[in-house]
Design a protein that fits this description.
The chain is about 10% helix and about 40% strand. By secondary structure, the protein is mostly beta strands. Among the domains are: about 140 residues, no CATH class; about 120 residues, YVTN repeat-like/Quinoprotein amine dehydrogenase (Methylamine Dehydrogenase, Chain H).
Protein backbone atom coordinates (compact mmCIF):
# COMPACT_ATOMS: atom_id res chain seq x y z
CA UNK A 1 0.00 0.00 0.00
CA UNK A 2 1.19 3.52 -0.71
CA UNK A 3 2.21 5.56 2.28
CA UNK A 4 -0.55 8.02 2.99
CA UNK A 5 -1.49 10.59 5.57
CA UNK A 6 -4.78 10.28 7.46
CA UNK A 7 -6.51 13.64 7.72
CA UNK A 8 -7.54 14.85 11.17
CA UNK A 9 -11.20 14.94 12.05
CA UNK A 10 -13.07 18.10 11.17
CA UNK A 11 -12.80 20.74 13.84
CA UNK A 12 -9.92 19.03 15.57
CA UNK A 13 -7.28 21.44 16.88
CA UNK A 14 -4.22 19.27 17.47
CA UNK A 15 -2.00 22.23 18.29
CA UNK A 16 -4.37 24.17 20.57
CA UNK A 17 -2.45 23.08 23.67
CA UNK A 18 0.95 23.57 22.07
CA UNK A 19 3.39 25.84 23.85
CA UNK A 20 3.05 29.16 22.07
CA UNK A 21 6.72 29.89 22.78
CA UNK A 22 7.80 26.82 20.82
CA UNK A 23 9.08 27.75 17.38
CA UNK A 24 9.78 24.35 15.88
CA UNK A 25 7.26 21.75 14.74
CA UNK A 26 8.96 18.36 14.93
CA UNK A 27 8.49 15.22 12.92
CA UNK A 28 6.97 13.61 16.03
CA UNK A 29 4.30 16.32 16.06
CA UNK A 30 3.49 15.56 12.43
CA UNK A 31 3.22 11.82 13.14
CA UNK A 32 0.89 12.38 16.08
CA UNK A 33 -1.24 15.03 14.39
CA UNK A 34 -1.88 13.09 11.22
CA UNK A 35 -1.71 9.56 12.69
CA UNK A 36 0.69 8.27 10.06
CA UNK A 37 0.92 4.57 9.41
CA UNK A 38 4.39 5.21 8.01
CA UNK A 39 6.63 7.51 9.98
CA UNK A 40 8.15 10.59 8.43
CA UNK A 41 11.84 9.97 7.98
CA UNK A 42 13.95 11.49 10.70
CA UNK A 43 17.21 13.06 9.52
CA UNK A 44 19.41 15.95 10.53
CA UNK A 45 18.66 17.85 7.35
CA UNK A 46 15.01 18.08 8.38
CA UNK A 47 15.92 19.93 11.57
CA UNK A 48 18.32 22.22 9.68
CA UNK A 49 15.65 23.01 7.13
CA UNK A 50 13.02 23.80 9.76
CA UNK A 51 15.39 25.88 11.85
CA UNK A 52 16.97 27.82 8.99
CA UNK A 53 15.57 27.45 5.49
CA UNK A 54 17.85 30.31 4.52
CA UNK A 55 15.41 32.86 5.93
CA UNK A 56 15.43 35.52 8.64
CA UNK A 57 14.23 34.55 12.11
CA UNK A 58 11.23 36.90 11.95
CA UNK A 59 10.04 35.22 8.76
CA UNK A 60 10.60 31.77 10.20
CA UNK A 61 8.74 32.54 13.42
CA UNK A 62 5.76 33.75 11.44
CA UNK A 63 5.88 30.65 9.26
CA UNK A 64 6.03 28.31 12.27
CA UNK A 65 3.01 30.10 13.71
CA UNK A 66 1.01 29.65 10.52
CA UNK A 67 2.01 26.00 10.19
CA UNK A 68 1.43 24.94 13.81
CA UNK A 69 -1.53 27.01 15.00
CA UNK A 70 -3.76 26.79 11.95
CA UNK A 71 -3.98 23.02 11.47
CA UNK A 72 -1.51 22.78 8.62
CA UNK A 73 0.95 19.95 8.07
CA UNK A 74 4.17 21.93 8.28
CA UNK A 75 6.97 22.52 5.81
CA UNK A 76 9.29 19.52 5.86
CA UNK A 77 12.19 18.49 3.64
CA UNK A 78 11.76 14.84 4.64
CA UNK A 79 9.58 12.57 2.55
CA UNK A 80 7.18 9.87 3.65
CA UNK A 81 8.70 6.53 2.73
CA UNK A 82 6.84 5.16 -0.28
CA UNK A 83 6.42 1.54 0.80
CA UNK A 84 4.58 0.53 -2.36
CA UNK A 85 7.44 1.61 -4.60
CA UNK A 86 10.02 0.15 -2.19
CA UNK A 87 8.32 -3.26 -2.21
CA UNK A 88 7.74 -3.14 -5.98
CA UNK A 89 11.44 -2.57 -6.61
CA UNK A 90 12.51 -5.12 -3.99
CA UNK A 91 10.27 -7.84 -5.46
CA UNK A 92 10.68 -6.69 -9.09
CA UNK A 93 6.89 -6.50 -9.34
CA UNK A 94 5.53 -7.42 -12.79
CA UNK A 95 9.23 -7.79 -13.77
CA UNK A 96 9.35 -4.04 -14.37
CA UNK A 97 12.05 -2.86 -11.97
CA UNK A 98 15.14 -4.91 -12.74
CA UNK A 99 18.35 -3.07 -13.65
CA UNK A 100 20.42 -6.19 -14.44
CA UNK A 101 20.38 -5.49 -18.18
CA UNK A 102 22.08 -2.10 -17.64
CA UNK A 103 25.44 -3.92 -17.76
CA UNK A 104 24.77 -4.95 -21.37
CA UNK A 105 24.14 -1.37 -22.56
CA UNK A 106 27.07 0.55 -23.98
CA UNK A 107 27.65 4.14 -23.00
CA UNK A 108 27.53 6.85 -25.67
CA UNK A 109 30.92 7.64 -27.19
CA UNK A 110 32.05 11.25 -26.84
CA UNK A 111 34.68 12.92 -29.00
CA UNK A 112 36.63 15.89 -27.66
CA UNK A 113 36.00 19.01 -29.69
CA UNK A 114 37.55 22.46 -29.85
CA UNK A 115 36.30 25.99 -29.28
CA UNK A 116 36.28 26.76 -33.02
CA UNK A 117 33.76 23.96 -33.71
CA UNK A 118 31.74 25.06 -30.71
CA UNK A 119 31.60 28.69 -31.84
CA UNK A 120 30.62 27.72 -35.39
CA UNK A 121 27.58 25.80 -34.09
CA UNK A 122 26.44 27.93 -31.15
CA UNK A 123 26.22 31.63 -30.47
CA UNK A 124 25.84 31.58 -26.70
CA UNK A 125 27.11 35.12 -26.33
CA UNK A 126 24.35 36.84 -24.38
CA UNK A 127 25.87 39.14 -21.73
CA UNK A 128 23.66 40.31 -18.86
CA UNK A 129 23.94 43.11 -16.35
CA UNK A 130 22.97 41.61 -13.02
CA UNK A 131 22.64 42.53 -9.38
CA UNK A 132 21.31 41.10 -6.10
CA UNK A 133 18.73 43.23 -4.28
CA UNK A 134 20.07 46.80 -4.25
CA UNK A 135 23.72 45.80 -4.49
CA UNK A 136 26.04 47.12 -7.18
CA UNK A 137 25.38 45.56 -10.59
CA UNK A 138 28.05 43.84 -12.66
CA UNK A 139 28.34 42.20 -16.08
CA UNK A 140 27.53 38.49 -16.06
CA UNK A 141 29.17 36.86 -19.08
CA UNK A 142 28.16 33.51 -20.67
CA UNK A 143 29.15 30.46 -18.57
CA UNK A 144 29.90 32.77 -15.65
CA UNK A 145 28.23 32.58 -12.23
CA UNK A 146 27.65 34.88 -9.29
CA UNK A 147 27.16 33.54 -5.77
CA UNK A 148 24.53 34.98 -3.47
CA UNK A 149 25.90 37.86 -1.39
CA UNK A 150 26.89 36.95 2.15
CA UNK A 151 24.48 38.20 4.78
CA UNK A 152 25.17 36.76 8.23
CA UNK A 153 21.77 37.82 9.59
CA UNK A 154 19.83 36.25 6.72
CA UNK A 155 22.04 33.54 5.28
CA UNK A 156 21.12 32.13 1.87
CA UNK A 157 23.26 29.82 -0.19
CA UNK A 158 22.93 29.85 -3.97
CA UNK A 159 24.26 31.08 -7.29
CA UNK A 160 23.08 32.56 -10.60
CA UNK A 161 24.57 31.13 -13.80
CA UNK A 162 24.38 32.75 -17.25
CA UNK A 163 23.94 30.03 -19.88
CA UNK A 164 24.53 32.57 -22.64
CA UNK A 165 21.52 31.32 -24.58
CA UNK A 166 18.05 29.93 -23.82
CA UNK A 167 17.78 26.96 -21.41
CA UNK A 168 14.85 24.72 -22.36
CA UNK A 169 14.75 21.87 -19.86
CA UNK A 170 16.79 20.19 -17.11
CA UNK A 171 16.92 17.14 -14.83
CA UNK A 172 18.93 16.02 -11.77
CA UNK A 173 20.96 12.83 -12.23
CA UNK A 174 20.45 10.02 -9.64
CA UNK A 175 24.22 9.39 -9.46
CA UNK A 176 26.42 11.39 -7.13
CA UNK A 177 30.09 11.68 -6.22
CA UNK A 178 30.37 12.42 -2.50
CA UNK A 179 28.52 15.69 -1.99
CA UNK A 180 28.58 16.51 -5.72
CA UNK A 181 25.30 16.20 -7.63
CA UNK A 182 24.87 16.57 -11.38
CA UNK A 183 22.33 18.80 -13.13
CA UNK A 184 21.76 18.20 -16.87
CA UNK A 185 20.59 21.34 -18.75
CA UNK A 186 19.62 21.70 -22.43
CA UNK A 187 20.54 25.07 -23.99
CA UNK A 188 19.91 26.59 -27.44
CA UNK A 189 20.79 29.92 -29.03
CA UNK A 190 18.61 32.69 -27.66
CA UNK A 191 17.24 33.54 -31.11
CA UNK A 192 16.58 29.92 -32.12
CA UNK A 193 13.27 29.09 -33.76
CA UNK A 194 11.61 26.94 -31.12
CA UNK A 195 9.11 24.45 -32.52
CA UNK A 196 8.25 20.79 -32.06
CA UNK A 197 10.42 19.57 -34.94
CA UNK A 198 13.01 22.30 -35.27
CA UNK A 199 16.28 21.48 -37.03
CA UNK A 200 18.28 23.56 -34.56
CA UNK A 201 21.13 22.11 -32.54
CA UNK A 202 21.24 22.06 -28.73
CA UNK A 203 23.95 21.96 -26.09
CA UNK A 204 23.76 19.53 -23.17
CA UNK A 205 25.53 21.25 -20.29
CA UNK A 206 26.28 19.25 -17.14
CA UNK A 207 26.87 21.16 -13.91
CA UNK A 208 28.42 19.76 -10.74
CA UNK A 209 26.81 21.21 -7.62
CA UNK A 210 27.98 20.54 -4.05
CA UNK A 211 25.13 19.88 -1.61
CA UNK A 212 27.42 20.87 1.28
CA UNK A 213 29.16 24.06 0.16
CA UNK A 214 26.91 25.22 -2.69
CA UNK A 215 29.95 25.40 -4.99
CA UNK A 216 29.53 24.52 -8.63
CA UNK A 217 31.51 23.97 -11.82
CA UNK A 218 30.81 22.95 -15.42
CA UNK A 219 31.58 19.26 -15.83
CA UNK A 220 31.20 19.10 -19.61
CA UNK A 221 29.21 20.37 -22.58
CA UNK A 222 28.00 18.03 -25.35
CA UNK A 223 26.89 19.31 -28.76
CA UNK A 224 23.72 17.61 -30.06
CA UNK A 225 22.50 17.62 -33.68
CA UNK A 226 18.90 18.35 -32.64
CA UNK A 227 17.03 19.90 -29.73
CA UNK A 228 16.41 17.69 -26.70
CA UNK A 229 12.86 18.77 -25.74
CA UNK A 230 12.60 16.43 -22.76
CA UNK A 231 15.25 14.71 -20.64
CA UNK A 232 14.29 12.11 -18.05
CA UNK A 233 16.22 9.69 -15.87
CA UNK A 234 14.87 6.23 -15.09
CA UNK A 235 12.88 6.17 -11.83
CA UNK A 236 14.99 3.19 -10.70
CA UNK A 237 18.78 3.18 -11.12
CA UNK A 238 21.49 0.62 -10.47
CA UNK A 239 24.20 1.24 -7.89
CA UNK A 240 26.69 2.47 -10.48
CA UNK A 241 24.61 3.35 -13.54
CA UNK A 242 21.36 4.88 -14.69
CA UNK A 243 19.51 5.54 -17.95
CA UNK A 244 18.94 8.96 -19.47
CA UNK A 245 16.15 9.36 -22.05
CA UNK A 246 16.19 12.31 -24.47
CA UNK A 247 13.13 13.16 -26.61
CA UNK A 248 14.56 14.91 -29.67
CA UNK A 249 13.17 17.41 -32.18
CA UNK A 250 14.19 14.96 -34.92
CA UNK A 251 11.14 12.89 -33.93
CA UNK A 252 13.20 10.17 -32.25
CA UNK A 253 14.30 9.18 -28.74
CA UNK A 254 17.84 8.52 -27.50
CA UNK A 255 18.60 6.40 -24.42
CA UNK A 256 22.03 6.83 -22.84
CA UNK A 257 23.66 4.80 -20.13
CA UNK A 258 25.24 7.09 -17.52
CA UNK A 259 27.90 5.79 -15.10
CA UNK A 260 30.44 7.57 -12.87
CA UNK A 261 33.01 7.29 -15.68
CA UNK A 262 30.75 9.49 -17.83
CA UNK A 263 31.70 12.49 -15.69
CA UNK A 264 35.46 12.01 -16.16
CA UNK A 265 37.20 14.28 -18.66
CA UNK A 266 40.52 12.63 -19.61
CA UNK A 267 42.76 14.73 -21.79
CA UNK A 268 41.11 18.01 -20.82
CA UNK A 269 43.45 20.69 -19.53
CA UNK A 270 42.69 22.28 -16.19
CA UNK A 271 40.57 25.44 -16.39
CA UNK A 272 39.64 24.59 -20.00
CA UNK A 273 36.02 23.79 -20.91
CA UNK A 274 35.37 20.13 -21.70
CA UNK A 275 33.46 20.31 -25.01
CA UNK A 276 32.39 17.15 -26.82
CA UNK A 277 30.54 15.97 -29.88
CA UNK A 278 28.49 12.79 -29.83
CA UNK A 279 30.39 10.17 -31.80
CA UNK A 280 27.85 7.36 -31.31
CA UNK A 281 24.54 7.04 -29.46
CA UNK A 282 24.14 3.24 -29.40
CA UNK A 283 20.38 3.38 -28.61
CA UNK A 284 18.15 5.49 -30.87
CA UNK A 285 14.43 4.76 -31.25
CA UNK A 286 12.48 5.86 -34.33
CA UNK A 287 9.06 4.78 -35.58
CA UNK A 288 9.38 2.84 -38.88
CA UNK A 289 6.98 5.25 -40.59
CA UNK A 290 8.33 8.62 -41.73
CA UNK A 291 4.89 10.20 -41.28
CA UNK A 292 4.89 9.48 -37.53
CA UNK A 293 7.30 11.46 -35.40
CA UNK A 294 7.72 11.13 -31.62
CA UNK A 295 6.76 14.30 -29.74
CA UNK A 296 6.99 13.13 -26.11
CA UNK A 297 7.95 10.07 -24.07
CA UNK A 298 8.03 8.70 -20.52
CA UNK A 299 9.52 5.68 -18.77
CA UNK A 300 6.99 2.95 -17.93
CA UNK A 301 9.54 0.54 -16.44
CA UNK A 302 13.31 0.23 -16.34
CA UNK A 303 13.11 -1.58 -19.71
CA UNK A 304 10.36 0.30 -21.53
CA UNK A 305 9.08 3.76 -22.36
CA UNK A 306 5.79 4.96 -23.81
CA UNK A 307 5.60 7.74 -26.39
CA UNK A 308 3.14 10.03 -28.18
CA UNK A 309 3.28 11.17 -31.80
CA UNK A 310 2.35 14.07 -34.06
CA UNK A 311 -0.73 12.19 -35.38
CA UNK A 312 -2.27 10.97 -32.14
CA UNK A 313 -0.66 7.55 -31.86
CA UNK A 314 0.66 6.10 -28.61
CA UNK A 315 3.23 3.33 -28.58
CA UNK A 316 5.87 1.59 -26.52
CA UNK A 317 9.49 0.61 -27.14
CA UNK A 318 11.46 -2.04 -25.23
CA UNK A 319 14.91 -0.69 -24.45
CA UNK A 320 16.64 -4.05 -24.00
CA UNK A 321 15.35 -5.59 -27.25
CA UNK A 322 14.93 -2.26 -29.13
CA UNK A 323 11.58 -3.53 -30.42
CA UNK A 324 8.37 -1.58 -30.97
CA UNK A 325 5.89 -3.35 -28.69
CA UNK A 326 2.73 -1.64 -29.93
CA UNK A 327 1.55 1.43 -31.83
CA UNK A 328 -2.12 2.33 -31.41
CA UNK A 329 -4.19 5.30 -32.56
CA UNK A 330 -6.07 6.86 -29.65
CA UNK A 331 -8.02 9.12 -32.03
CA UNK A 332 -6.48 12.31 -30.70
CA UNK A 333 -4.66 15.11 -32.50
CA UNK A 334 -0.93 15.60 -31.88
CA UNK A 335 0.13 14.57 -28.39
CA UNK A 336 2.27 17.23 -26.72
CA UNK A 337 3.09 15.63 -23.37
CA UNK A 338 2.77 12.29 -21.62
CA UNK A 339 3.48 11.24 -18.01
CA UNK A 340 2.98 7.78 -16.55
CA UNK A 341 2.25 6.32 -13.13
CA UNK A 342 4.30 3.45 -11.75
CA UNK A 343 2.46 0.08 -11.55
CA UNK A 344 3.40 -0.69 -7.93
CA UNK A 345 0.48 -2.88 -6.78
CA UNK A 346 0.37 -6.66 -7.32
CA UNK A 347 -3.18 -6.40 -8.68
CA UNK A 348 -2.29 -3.80 -11.31
CA UNK A 349 -3.05 -5.15 -14.78
CA UNK A 350 -2.69 -1.76 -16.42
CA UNK A 351 -0.89 1.55 -15.93
CA UNK A 352 -2.28 5.02 -16.34
CA UNK A 353 -0.83 7.83 -18.43
CA UNK A 354 -1.71 11.50 -18.29
CA UNK A 355 -1.79 12.98 -21.80
CA UNK A 356 -1.88 16.56 -23.04
CA UNK A 357 -3.02 16.92 -26.65
CA UNK A 358 -3.11 19.64 -29.29
CA UNK A 359 -6.92 19.88 -28.99
CA UNK A 360 -6.28 21.77 -25.73
CA UNK A 361 -7.60 18.88 -23.62
CA UNK A 362 -6.13 16.43 -21.13
CA UNK A 363 -6.76 12.71 -20.97
CA UNK A 364 -6.17 9.85 -18.60
CA UNK A 365 -5.46 6.81 -20.76
CA UNK A 366 -5.30 3.23 -19.55
CA UNK A 367 -2.32 1.37 -21.07
CA UNK A 368 -1.14 -2.23 -20.82
CA UNK A 369 1.36 -3.09 -18.13
CA UNK A 370 4.56 -3.23 -20.23
CA UNK A 371 4.95 -7.01 -20.14
CA UNK A 372 1.21 -7.66 -20.67
CA UNK A 373 0.30 -6.49 -24.16
CA UNK A 374 -3.21 -7.98 -24.35
CA UNK A 375 -5.37 -5.28 -22.77
CA UNK A 376 -6.96 -2.56 -24.91
CA UNK A 377 -6.52 1.17 -24.49
CA UNK A 378 -9.47 2.98 -22.96
CA UNK A 379 -9.80 6.73 -22.69
CA UNK A 380 -11.08 7.25 -19.16
CA UNK A 381 -11.78 10.95 -18.88
CA UNK A 382 -11.18 14.25 -20.62
CA UNK A 383 -10.33 17.48 -18.82
CA UNK A 384 -10.55 20.75 -20.70
CA UNK A 385 -7.93 23.53 -20.62
CA UNK A 386 -8.73 27.04 -21.94
CA UNK A 387 -7.82 27.13 -25.63
CA UNK A 388 -6.29 30.62 -25.61
CA UNK A 389 -3.50 29.64 -23.24
CA UNK A 390 -1.96 26.57 -24.81
CA UNK A 391 0.10 25.70 -27.87
CA UNK A 392 1.95 22.73 -29.29
CA UNK A 393 5.45 23.99 -28.55
CA UNK A 394 7.11 22.46 -25.49
CA UNK A 395 4.01 22.29 -23.31
CA UNK A 396 5.26 20.05 -20.48
CA UNK A 397 3.30 21.17 -17.46
CA UNK A 398 2.16 18.09 -15.57
CA UNK A 399 3.78 16.05 -12.80
CA UNK A 400 3.08 12.65 -11.26
CA UNK A 401 2.98 12.22 -7.48
CA UNK A 402 3.38 8.56 -6.63
CA UNK A 403 2.79 9.16 -2.92
CA UNK A 404 -0.66 10.64 -3.74
CA UNK A 405 -1.39 8.32 -6.68
CA UNK A 406 -2.31 11.42 -8.64
CA UNK A 407 -1.31 13.79 -11.40
CA UNK A 408 -1.04 17.56 -11.03
CA UNK A 409 -1.27 19.96 -13.95
CA UNK A 410 -1.79 23.66 -14.60
CA UNK A 411 -5.14 25.03 -15.64
CA UNK A 412 -4.26 28.54 -16.68
CA UNK A 413 -3.94 31.09 -15.39
CA UNK A 414 -3.61 30.36 -11.64
CA UNK A 415 -5.30 27.00 -10.98
CA UNK A 416 -3.63 23.66 -10.29
CA UNK A 417 -5.65 20.46 -10.68
CA UNK A 418 -5.08 17.19 -8.82
CA UNK A 419 -6.47 14.21 -10.75
CA UNK A 420 -6.78 10.90 -8.93
CA UNK A 421 -5.58 7.87 -10.89
CA UNK A 422 -8.02 5.51 -9.17
CA UNK A 423 -10.99 7.78 -9.82
CA UNK A 424 -10.54 10.21 -12.74
CA UNK A 425 -13.74 11.99 -11.73
CA UNK A 426 -12.11 12.95 -8.43
CA UNK A 427 -10.56 16.29 -9.34
CA UNK A 428 -9.38 18.75 -6.70
CA UNK A 429 -8.55 22.33 -7.68
CA UNK A 430 -6.68 25.03 -5.81
CA UNK A 431 -5.48 28.46 -6.83
CA UNK A 432 -2.22 30.26 -6.19
CA UNK A 433 -3.30 33.80 -6.94
CA UNK A 434 -0.51 35.64 -5.13
CA UNK A 435 1.32 36.40 -8.37
CA UNK A 436 0.62 36.37 -12.11
CA UNK A 437 -0.06 33.28 -14.24
CA UNK A 438 1.55 29.97 -13.27
CA UNK A 439 3.95 29.07 -16.07
CA UNK A 440 5.52 25.91 -14.65
CA UNK A 441 5.33 23.59 -11.66
CA UNK A 442 7.43 20.82 -10.14
CA UNK A 443 7.63 18.71 -7.01
CA UNK A 444 10.47 17.93 -4.65
CA UNK A 445 12.16 14.57 -5.34
CA UNK A 446 14.62 12.30 -3.54
CA UNK A 447 16.89 9.57 -4.86
CA UNK A 448 16.97 6.86 -2.22
CA UNK A 449 19.01 3.73 -3.07
CA UNK A 450 18.45 4.41 -6.76
CA UNK A 451 14.69 4.90 -6.42
CA UNK A 452 13.00 8.22 -7.08
CA UNK A 453 10.50 9.25 -4.41
CA UNK A 454 8.44 12.35 -3.77
CA UNK A 455 8.93 14.97 -1.08
CA UNK A 456 6.17 17.20 0.24
CA UNK A 457 7.01 20.47 -1.51
CA UNK A 458 5.33 21.91 -4.60
CA UNK A 459 7.13 24.58 -6.64
CA UNK A 460 5.35 27.08 -8.88
CA UNK A 461 6.94 29.58 -11.25
CA UNK A 462 4.93 32.68 -12.18
CA UNK A 463 5.06 34.94 -15.22
CA UNK A 464 5.97 38.01 -13.15
CA UNK A 465 9.31 36.45 -12.13
CA UNK A 466 8.18 34.95 -8.82
CA UNK A 467 9.13 31.51 -7.53
CA UNK A 468 6.98 29.98 -4.76
CA UNK A 469 7.14 26.91 -2.52
CA UNK A 470 4.10 25.29 -0.89
CA UNK A 471 3.39 22.14 1.08
CA UNK A 472 0.98 20.24 -1.15
CA UNK A 473 -0.45 18.26 1.78
CA UNK A 474 -1.61 21.62 3.14
CA UNK A 475 -3.04 22.62 -0.22
CA UNK A 476 -5.03 19.41 -0.64
CA UNK A 477 -6.36 18.81 2.88
CA UNK A 478 -10.06 19.41 3.51
CA UNK A 479 -9.56 20.20 7.19
CA UNK A 480 -11.20 23.39 8.40
CA UNK A 481 -8.65 26.15 8.97
CA UNK A 482 -8.85 29.49 10.68
CA UNK A 483 -6.75 30.94 7.87
CA UNK A 484 -5.97 29.94 4.32
CA UNK A 485 -2.99 27.74 3.55
CA UNK A 486 0.29 29.64 3.29
CA UNK A 487 2.86 29.78 0.52
CA UNK A 488 6.47 30.94 0.67
CA UNK A 489 7.82 33.33 -1.95
CA UNK A 490 11.42 32.24 -2.37
CA UNK A 491 12.67 34.88 -4.80
CA UNK A 492 11.63 37.50 -7.34
CA UNK A 493 13.50 38.10 -10.60
CA UNK A 494 13.03 41.56 -12.13
CA UNK A 495 14.06 43.30 -15.32
CA UNK A 496 14.88 46.95 -15.92
CA UNK A 497 12.62 48.91 -18.24
CA UNK A 498 15.31 51.50 -18.89
CA UNK A 499 18.45 49.40 -19.37
CA UNK A 500 18.53 46.56 -21.91
CA UNK A 501 19.58 43.15 -20.52
CA UNK A 502 19.70 44.35 -16.92
CA UNK A 503 18.19 42.08 -14.27
CA UNK A 504 18.22 41.82 -10.51
CA UNK A 505 17.23 39.14 -8.07
CA UNK A 506 15.20 40.10 -5.03
CA UNK A 507 16.12 37.66 -2.25
CA UNK A 508 13.63 39.07 0.26
CA UNK A 509 11.46 36.04 1.01
CA UNK A 510 7.88 36.49 2.08
CA UNK A 511 5.06 34.36 3.46
CA UNK A 512 1.54 34.85 2.08
CA UNK A 513 -1.73 33.07 2.49
CA UNK A 514 -2.87 31.39 -0.72
CA UNK A 515 -4.78 33.92 -2.78
CA UNK A 516 -3.49 37.04 -1.04
CA UNK A 517 -2.78 40.00 -3.30
CA UNK A 518 0.89 40.86 -3.61
CA UNK A 519 2.11 44.08 -2.04
CA UNK A 520 3.59 46.51 -4.55
CA UNK A 521 6.86 47.96 -3.31
CA UNK A 522 7.36 51.70 -3.26
CA UNK A 523 10.73 51.35 -4.92
CA UNK A 524 9.99 51.78 -8.62
CA UNK A 525 12.99 49.73 -9.61
CA UNK A 526 11.74 46.71 -7.71
CA UNK A 527 8.27 46.85 -9.29
CA UNK A 528 9.44 47.36 -12.90
CA UNK A 529 9.25 44.11 -14.83
CA UNK A 530 10.08 43.91 -18.51
CA UNK A 531 8.96 41.63 -21.31
CA UNK A 532 11.06 38.86 -22.78
CA UNK A 533 10.87 36.79 -25.93
CA UNK A 534 7.52 35.05 -26.15
CA UNK A 535 7.90 31.34 -25.43
CA UNK A 536 4.23 30.62 -24.82
CA UNK A 537 0.99 32.27 -25.79
CA UNK A 538 0.13 33.67 -22.38
CA UNK A 539 -1.12 37.19 -21.91
CA UNK A 540 0.40 39.35 -20.58
CA UNK A 541 3.85 37.99 -21.35
CA UNK A 542 6.29 38.73 -18.51
CA UNK A 543 9.71 37.60 -17.39
CA UNK A 544 9.05 34.08 -16.13
CA UNK A 545 10.73 30.79 -15.17
CA UNK A 546 10.52 28.08 -17.84
CA UNK A 547 11.12 24.97 -15.74
CA UNK A 548 11.69 24.09 -12.08
CA UNK A 549 13.36 21.13 -10.42
CA UNK A 550 14.00 20.36 -6.74
CA UNK A 551 16.33 17.58 -5.58
CA UNK A 552 16.17 17.22 -1.79
CA UNK A 553 16.88 20.82 -0.64
CA UNK A 554 18.34 22.15 -3.92
CA UNK A 555 15.91 24.29 -5.94
CA UNK A 556 16.86 24.85 -9.60
CA UNK A 557 15.08 27.15 -12.04
CA UNK A 558 15.76 28.17 -15.65
CA UNK A 559 14.55 31.47 -17.10
CA UNK A 560 13.67 33.04 -20.43
CA UNK A 561 16.54 35.51 -20.15
CA UNK A 562 19.08 32.67 -20.13
CA UNK A 563 19.69 32.43 -16.38
CA UNK A 564 19.91 29.31 -14.25
CA UNK A 565 19.37 29.86 -10.52
CA UNK A 566 20.16 27.21 -7.89
CA UNK A 567 19.60 27.67 -4.17
CA UNK A 568 20.42 25.26 -1.36
CA UNK A 569 17.69 25.55 1.27
CA UNK A 570 19.86 24.76 4.28
CA UNK A 571 21.04 26.62 7.34
Amino acid sequence: MSARVTKPKRGRKPNSKKNQEEEIITTQDIDSEYENNNKVQNNTNALKFIQGNGLGQAVLKNYYKVQTEDLEAGFLPAHIDDLSLHNAVKNNLHELFSTDFYEEIKEPKLQLSDSKTYESNFKLDNNLEFQFNNNQSEVLEPCQALHYPLNERNFRNGFVFNTGGLPLTMAWCPLKNGSWRYLFVIIVDKNSAISEFTDNKSLLTILEVSSETGEFQINKQIMLDSVAKEIEFSFVSAAASTLLKLTLSSGSVDVWKISPEFFFNPGVKKNKPAIYTLESRHLTFTIPNNQLLITTSAFTSTKTFVFGTNHGYIGQFSIDSQKLDYLISVKLPAITHIKTAFPTQPGDDFLTSFVEAADFSNYLIRLPVPNKKSCLINVLKTYDIPTNNKELQFDKNSIHLNNLNSFLNIEWPITIKKISIDNPNNVTKFKIANDDDINCLANQIYYDDGKISDGLILLTGHTNGSLRLSNYLNLLTNTEKRVQVSTLKLLQLNKSVTTENKYWLDLCSKIDKIGESTVVKSNNKQSSIGRTKELRNVNPKELCPLKLSMLENAVASIWGNGLLIIEQLTL
